[in-house]
Specification:
This protein has 294 residues and is α/β, with parallel strands linked by helices. The protein is 31% helix and 17% strand. The strands form 2 sheets. A 7-stranded parallel β-sheet has the order 3-2-1-4-5-6-7. Strand 1, helix 1 and strand 2 form a beta-alpha-beta unit. The longest helix is centred in the first third of the chain and has 15 residues. The termini are close together.
Length: 294
C-alpha cells in the first residue's frame, strides 16, 4: 500500500498537492492513504491522522516535511511535529545522532522523500540514507539540491478545471501562502497600476506578522478594494471570481500558470528561468508509476 505522511495537513498548496497525489493513486487502482496532523485533508481524500499510521511490509511511504532521523521515528510521528522547539533540538542533535542511528534504508518497506517547494523543512534535518529516492515537484530547485541518493522530478497533479463562462472585469487574484518571500505587496501594487478595481488575496495565513506589517496598511489605504479571502478549497470558484492573477514570486513549480490557462484567466508573473514544461496528469502519473515500480 502507498502511504503519505506529512508534517502538516492544513489548508496550503503543498497539502492540496498531496491530496491530489493520493486521489490520483486511488483513482488509478493503487491503494493510498494520506496521514497528517491537521483535519483539513480528512474529507478530501482517503485519509487518517498521524496516530493512525504504521509502516507495514511492502508499503511505500512518501514523506513530506518530517524530520526523520531513524526508522524508529515513524512510530512517534505526532511527537516530531507537535512542537517547533523539538524540531530545533533534533536539528542540533542531528550530527551526534548520525553516529549511532542505523544508516541503511529499511528493507521490508520503502521510504520516498518528497520536496514540494523550496522553503520546505531543510533537507539537512532528515537522514537521507533512510530513503530510496527523492521526489521534486520541479527540476528548477531539484537540480540545485546536492544530494547523494537517487532523485526524480514529477510536477504536482492539476485539478480538472474549465474555462470560466463569465469573468468579472478588473478583478485580480493573488494566490499563495501569506509569507514574505511571496512579495504579496508587490503583486498588489502591480495590480493597482494595471487598473484592477478589486483585489482578492487567496492563501493560508502562514506569517501573520508579515500580513499586518505589509498588507494591512494597503487594505487601509485602498479601503474596500483589497480583500483577504483565505485559502480557496474550490479552485474553479476562485478562478471564476477573478479576471487576472498576479504573482511577484518566481515559482516555476507552481500550477497557477497552468490553471490560469485552463480557466481563461490573465496571468502576470516574472518569467521563469526553469526549463520545466507543463505536464498532463497522465504524464505525471507515468513518472510516479515507473519510479515506484507500480
Amino acid at each position: 500500500m502507498i502511504k503519505i505522511i506529512s508534517g502538516y495537513s492544513h489548508a496550503a498548496g503543498s497539502t492540496l498537492a498531496l491530496v491530489n497525489l493520493c486521489n490520483e493513486f486511488n483513482t488509478r487502482g493503487h491503494a493510498c492513504t494520506f496521514y497528517g496532523p491537521d483535519n483539513w485533508h480528512m474529507d478530501k481524500c482517503r485519509s487518517g491522522h498521524l496516530d493512525d499510521f504504521s509502516a507495514n511490509p511492502n508499503d511505500i511511504v512518501i514523506v513530506n516535511d518530517m524530520p526523520l532521523l531513524s526508522t524508529g521515528d515513524l512510530s512517534r510521528l505526532k511527537e516530531l511535529v507537535s512542537e517547533n522547539g523539538q524540531r530545533r533540538i533534533l536539528k542540533t542533535l542531528g550530527k551526534l545522532a548520525s553516529k549511532y542511528l542505523p544508516t541503511k534504508a529499511p528493507t521490508d518497506y520503502r521510504l520516498i522523500l518528497t520536496r514540494l517547494s523550496d522553503d520546505a523543512l531543510p533537507i539537512s534535518n532528515t537522514r537521507l540514507s533512510l530513503f530510496q529516492n527523492i521526489h521534486y515537484s520541479s527540476g528548477d530547485f531539484g537540480n540545485h539540491s546536492k544530494v547523494g541518493c537517487k532523485k526524480f522530478v514529477a510536477q504536482s497533479f492539476c485539478n480538472d478545471l474549465k474555462a470560466s463562462i463569465a469573468k468579472p472585469e478588473k478583478t485580480a487574484g493573488i494566490i499563495g501562502s501569506i509569507k514574505r518571500r511571496n512579495n504579496i505587496e508587490k503583486s498588489i501594487e502591480q495590480a493597482l497600476m494595471d487598473g484592477m478595481e478589486t483585489i482578492y488575496i487567496f492563501g493560508y495565513m502562514k506569517d501573520p506578522i508579515y500580513f499586518y506589517e505589509k498588507i494591512t496598511p494597503l487594505t487601509i489605504k485602498y479601503r474596500g478594494q483589497i480583500k483577504y479571502a483565505g485559502f480557496a478549497d474550490n479552485k474553479q470558484k476562485m478562478y471564476d471570481t477573478v479576471s487576472d492573477v498576479y504573482s511577484s514570486a518566481n515559482k516555476p513549480w507552481s500550477l497557477v500558470s497552468r490553471e490560469c490557462a485552463m480557466t481563461n484567466t490573465g496571468y502576470h508573473a516574472p518569467k521563469s528561468s526553469s526549463a520545466d514544461h507543463l505536464m498532463a496528469n497522465e504524464q505525471i502519473f507515468q513518472i510516479w508509476k515507473a519510479e515506484l515500480a507500480l
